[in-house]
Amino acid sequence: MIVQFSVSPPLEKPSSPPPPGLVQPSLGVGPGHWVKGSRDETEILVEYSDFQCPACRAYDPLVKQLYTKLGDQLFIVYRHYSLTNIHVHAQLAAQVQSFYRLTS
């Protein structure tokens, strides 16, 4: 599992626009991505996971605990990261999960 995590003090909204040339980070989140929480939050967790990965499964309770603790202050983005060279069914599981999510 690859995790990008940012915990920082709350950021104040800038009173003026950013200077020219300053690029705001983009999570690349679109309508098909799995997200939880508000995109306006400063606490962001981007989780890359594999359905067959034992480490990813072991990490899941920590993500749930973090969301329970931070609640609406946390924005979670989930992305499939199937390790097909060692988990032969991971990609298929991700596709089935995505199909199920779209048709439910």
Explain this structure to me?
With 104 residues, the chain is an alpha+beta fold. The chain has one domain: Glutaredoxin (3-Layer(aba) Sandwich). The chain is built from 2 helices and 4 strands. The protein has helices at residues 54-70, 90-103; strands spanning 2-6, 34-36, 43-49, 74-80. A 4-stranded mixed beta sheet has the order 1-3-4-2, covered by helices on one side. The two termini are 27 Å apart. 9% of the residues are buried. The model is unreliable at 1-11 (pLDDT under 50).
Topology:
Layout: E1 2-6, E2 34-36, E3 43-49, H1 54-70, E4 74-80, H2 90-103
Parallel strand pairs: 3-4
Antiparallel strand pairs: 1-3, 2-4
What is the CATH topology assignment? Glutaredoxin
Q: In percent, how much strand structure appears in the residues?
A: 15-25%
| Low-confidence blocks of residues | 1-11
* Alpha-carbon Rg, integer: 16 Å
H/E series, N to C? EEEHEH
- The domain tally reads 1
Largest sheet: 4 strands, mixed
Count of individual helical segments? 2
Q: For this structure, what is the CATH class?
A: Alpha Beta
User: What is the CATH-assigned architecture?
Assistant: 3-Layer(aba) Sandwich
Distance between the termini: 27 Å
Question: Can you list the strand order of the major beta sheet?
Answer: 1-3-4-2
| Total DSSP E strands | 4
For this structure, the quaternary state is single chain
Overall mean pLDDT stands at 75
What is the CATH homology-level superfamily?
Glutaredoxin
Helix content: 25-40%
The structural class is alpha+beta
